[in-house]
Amino acid sequence: MQQIDKYATLVGRSLRMLFKRERDRRRHAHSPYAWLFQPYMGEELVALACQVTPGPEPVLSIAAVVLNQQRVQLSQAWQATLADGEATCDKTVRRHQELYDTQTTLCFSAHTLRGLAEFIGNRPLIGWQLEQQLIMLDSAFRAHLGFGLPNAQVDVARLHHRQLRRRHPLVETSCQFSEALTCWQVPSVAARGLLGKATASALLYMRLQRDMAQSG
Description:
Blueprint: H1 2-27, E1 45-53, E2 59-67, E3 72-83, H2 91-100, E4 105-107, H3 110-120, E5 125-127, H4 130-133, H5 135-145, E6 153-155, H6 156-167, H7 177-183, H8 193-215
Parallel strand pairs: 1-5, 3-4, 5-6
Antiparallel strand pairs: 1-2, 2-3
């Protein structure tokens, strides 16, 4: 019964998300953002990693990197810490920069989020436990641009659980990102901080895609 309730909750959440995206697509059909809602026909994706410190003046660090089926393109990356304009020198902001290796601090604004939207484009987003990571970013998009991220999304954690169950039905799957990387023998990456996590997510996604293709 619990499994049925969980499935019904997931279906309901997915339907609500689809309705929101369709409503946003119609609302912005004749705006400069219309192209973001069009289906992506290329082969690239964007791996995303976010870290939030909540509060009255929340701080959000983001790293995004482009990948295709063959490689991660570290030369194409976007990373910054976003904060309220008056908090850009705050202790929390400095801590984000140190912990997540973000060199740039930007204000939460339409201009900043427009730049991120143009970098991502309409390419699919991937990431570890992506839905949880995108809560604050999606909220910021709605507040400043009037729509949530319209991109197709792939949660690498769910791919990991599904593929591990297919190969080892009786093995308990781990929710730890580091353990998933070890499980699939994904090598450590040179990039530090959030860019390192986004890059590792991209490599894990590519590894899982290869395994799925081989297992049919």
